[in-house]
Design goal:
By secondary structure, the protein is mainly α. The chain has 14 helices and no strands. The N and C termini lie far apart (72 Å). It comes from Vibrio ishigakensis.
Length: 339
């Protein structure tokens, strides 16, 4: 009996010691993209890779804000911009993954025509700047992502309250980025037929182009009467840089395995080459270091922004109209914008 009790006790102790270890291993085990033979596999793996980069960048941002918000705010701001650029590769267009699509507003709230983010952040700062993560997650999505962090880091002089709230918001963003990647552990398009996948893919590309166009058309507003505060990242002055990252990500998407270039080349090699060269030229001449917010308020800067919008609209025409017609696909409207 004593031996039995001792054996049971030993097992219990060993189990208690090993459980946390096992749990930790599960949490830290590297997640990998599902392997399939579906024609969407190349695009899926691209999305999964970009989601992993976004998660890693969000983690670095959280560390910088936690450790250097007051002591080295430039480091926190620099990492915010880098994280924003990684998000650009995922931004725009529903991917028909409900969990991932639902998270996009928690990552970024734009357009924000009524400054909803600012008003809600001011309210939290005045009442509970040390809000904990669990309570923050029960608040509006506008308080939990990159848009909120831009406001906290750039809107006014950083102080202890702003840094405390920014630390919590950054932690929420880390969780959101992890959930986004988790939703892509399996290929969401593997059940689609070839025709269904091609339509889904082209709709995704079209939505991304529509969003890029909107990023310029909103601040351009009426001819000669810009609305610079409608620029995507006017506080941090990286709106043009965001669009540059969008364009680079679009180039990756078009050249992915079984992407648009693969689909179009056998049917119309001339059009395929034209799209590739138009996009390449647009990327090469993009004013990524300029401030859209500042330049659009000048006559020359307004003309520059208008010419960039024309470049994107040309890409939209080549892809949404000519390429879609060549592939026999009708691109439907699928807006993810609000406000």
């Amino acid at each position: 009996m004593n031996k039995s009790l001792i054996a049971m006790f030993t097992v219990a102790v060993l189990s208690g010691c090993s459980s946390p270890q096992t749990e930790q291993t599960d949490k830290t085990a590297p997640a990998t993209a599902e392997k399939t033979q579906h024609p969407s596999q190349g695009v899926y793996e691209l999305y999964f890779t970009n989601a992993t980069k976004f998660e890693n960048s969000a983690q670095l941002l959280s560390q910088q804000i936690t450790n250097k918000c007051l002591s080295d705010p430039l480091a926190a701001k620099t990492q915010w911009s880098e994280t924003m650029q990684t998000w650009m590769s995922l931004q725009g267009g529903n991917i028909n993954v409900p969990q991932a699509d639902a998270l996009t507003w928690k990552v970024q709230f734009w357009p924000d025509k009524k400054d909803t983010t600012g008003r809600q952040l001011k309210s939290v700062l005045s009442t509970n700047p040390n809000i904990n993560l669990a309570d923050l997650k029960n608040q509006s999505a506008t308080l939990q992502g990159l848009t909120a962090l831009e406001w906290l880091l750039y809107e006014a002089q950083l102080d202890q309250d702003r840094c405390s709230l920014a630390t919590t918001v950054a932690s929420s963003l880390v969780d959101t980025s992890a959930s986004y990647k988790q939703s892509l552990l399996t290929n969401p398009w593997k059940g689609l037929s070839q025709a269904q996948w091609e339509k889904q893919y082209l709709s995704l590309v079209s939505d991304k182009l529509d969003r890029m166009s909107k990023k310029l058309s909103l601040p351009l507003a009426n001819l000669g009467n810009p609305r610079p505060y409608f620029a995507e990242s006017w506080r941090s002055q990286v709106s043009y840089q965001n669009l540059y990252s969008n364009l680079v990500a679009l180039d990756d998407l078009l050249h992915a395995d079984n992407g648009l270039m693969t689909l179009l080349e056998p049917k119309d090699p001339r059009l395929s080459t034209l799209i590739a060269s138009t996009l390449s030229d647009t990327i090469a001449t993009w004013p990524k270091k300029d401030s859209l917010f500042e330049s659009i308020q000048t006559k020359q800067g307004y003309k520059l922004a208008l010419s960039q919008l024309n470049k994107i609209d040309q890409l939209k025409y080549l892809i949404n109209e000519q390429a879609a017609q060549e592939l026999g696909i009708v691109v439907g409207f699928n807006s993810t914008d609000g406000d």
